[in-house]
Amino acid sequence: MFIYIEMENTHITEEILPGIYKVDLSDTTVEQGVSSIHIFIIKGRADINSGRSLMIDTGFRNEDCLHKLLSALEELGISIDTLDIFLTHRHHDHCGLAGTFAEKGARLFMNPTEERHPYDCLAYRVSQESLDAQKKVLHSVGITPERTPQVWKTFMEISDRVQHHGEWVLAIWGFPYTEVYEGDRFCYGDYEFEATPLKGHTYGQMGLMDHEKQIFFTADQIIHDISPIIATTYPDEGLLLSFFDSLRYVKEHCSAWTVIPSHGEILSDVPKDVDKTVFSYLNKATVVRDLLKAKSIRKKETESYDPDATSEMTIQEVAEIIYHVRHMPENEAEFFIYKMFMTKTYSLLEYLYDLGFVTREEREGTFYWSYTN
Predict the structure, then answer these.
(1) CA distance 17 to 260
(2) What is the pLDDT confidence band of residue 50, given thresholds at 50, 70 and 90?
(3) Is the dihedral of CA 28, 29, 30, 31 positive or negative?
(4) Which domains does the chain show, CATH number per domain?
(5) For the segment 278-331, what is each residue's pLDDT rounded down to a tens digit?
(6) What is the DSSP string of 190-216?
(7) Alpha-carbon distance 285 to 200, whole Å?
(8) 3-state DSSP helix/strand/coil percent for the chain, to nearest 5?
(9) Is 371:311 a contact under the CB 8 Å cutoff?
(10) Pure H helices in 24-148
(11) In the 8-state DSSP scheme, what is residue 64?
């Protein structure tokens, strides 16, 4: 149930380009690292697409965000039954209100591969299938009841709360949507957008590109002065490698475009932001590679008198070293950060594996990684 909050009689929308409006939303209660997002609205014309308008994403699932968006639509003279919503990806800050707007009559569009897994690190679907998938993911990174009982207990406690009460911001509820595929067209106002894959931040993230007007809504793929989280939870999906390929395309083809992310400012120097983002991940990948290389060297040096020496490491072991984890998570905010360390390390190791720098072996559901000699 949503309770509407009275707000000052001021303009909620800002026209950033002709016919394109921005609404800033925030959630000060969120402890998961993201507290604000831009929602974009393209006002429709009666002679195009039956006068329907487009909104990109819905923001957080809270009362203030819903009220702001409803007020923005009213300010622009847009009724919800003529509103289409393009969901760039299935994270709580982008589709938290998707179900609410669907119930009110809006049409939703999303890439179906965003739901290829019942569980990932930033979207928990309330179901037994999701709980089972989570346990499998945890085992894969080296978090098990036997190896890491405290961390395992924290995961299970939060999962139990979500399963029975849904009291977690990352519990993304189901909502109806029309499937979107690469190349699909979205014509609103004076714009003709093409759905463009942005695999990396998530498996099925998509943006909207207007080739004629050289405008690109890039969701969370590239953000000024921030490296988006590339959070892998399943093997062999190539998220970081795909992320680099996507950024290479943006740098080569969209350097002079208006590139609009969902967070932060419109990019003023696309090549510079691309390079900074890529270099930050490459630097971290080098740290991981060197850690495994040093482990391999130590094994060779000690194997004559220490037959139990190993060059293998789990994702959890690597993550705790490269991110300097000093203690186990003690609250939900620390728990989320800890989980991010696991998933980012997973991405780095998968990238090094794809390039042949490391090897990967699975035993009893856990992946063990070592340097390729």
Answers:
(1) 11
(2) confident
(3) positive
(4) 14-115+173-274 (3.60.15.10), 120-165 (no CATH), 281-371 (1.10.10)
(5) 999 999 999 999 999 999 999 888 877 777 778 899 999 999 999 999 887 777
(6) TEEEEEEE-TTSSSS-EEEEETTTTEE
(7) 16
(8) 40, 20, 40
(9) yes
(10) 63-75, 92-95, 98-103, 128-141
(11) H
CB environment 116-152: b (16+ within 10 A), e (fewer): ebbbbbbbbbbeeebbebbbebbbbbbbbeeebeebb
CA atoms of 130 and 124, how far apart (whole Å): 7
Query: Do residues 186 and 87 lie in contact, with contact meaning Cβ atoms separated by under 8 Å?
Result: no
Axis-axis angle for helices 128-141, 315-322 (nearest 10): 70
Distance CA 355, CA 94 (A): 32
Q: CB–CB of 267/273 below 8 Å?
A: yes
Where are the extended beta strands (E) located within the chain?
14-17, 20-26, 36-42, 53-56, 83-86, 107-110, 119-120, 123-124, 178-179, 185-188, 191-197, 206-210, 215-219, 258-261, 358-363, 366-371
Please provide the distance, in angstroms rounded to a whole number, between the alpha carbons at the two ends of the chain.
Answer: 59
Residue whose C-alpha is closest to residue 84's, from 124, 43, 125: 43
Alpha carbon distance 61, 102 (integer Å): 13
